[in-house]
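note to self — DONT lose this again. spent like an hour looking for the file last time. sequence + predicted structure for the chain T wanted, 191 res
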Amino acid sequence: MAEETTTTTKKTTKSTGSTRSTSRTKSTATAPAAEPKTEAPIVPKDIDVHDTVTVRNGFQGKLIYKSPRSGERYVWESFGDEQEMELAELKNARNSSRAFFEKNWFMFDEAWIPDYLGVARYYKYALKIEDFDKLFDKSVAELEKILATMSDGQKKSVAYRARKLIADGTLDSRKMIAALEKQLGVELVEK
């Protein structure tokens, strides 16, 4: 029989002043499968615009964003690099430099951030940073479907990465290269 311990804690949220109870169950023996976790949706009024979030570079190369509000420069040296930015600064970037979102140059690990910023439509088909190289392991048919839905910015990143993989011999399938060239509208190998 499973031994169970239940702990109840009360949390008070700053912005609303409401109190919510949470329970945690710890089992020391085998128990039935746990129910999937459902997180409460994030409500914009519960988010402080001065909170910082991690922004990753979705551009294949050095990415620079200069804040028109504060003049601060944010520099990501290479694809996948991280910078901490305030949500207020990201809102400002959305209003002044929308291309960073449209082209998926700003990437986020947390799905709520694009929703909160009102740019979720640009990330609907965006490829996550950690899944980027896995794209080249797909079948040609799968690859074509994925590329057809990508933003122009991500397509350019795919072309850049494909050129590097072709140059170092990692990507050598003629069918794959031909499909990439067709879908991306670029020449990856000189003929």
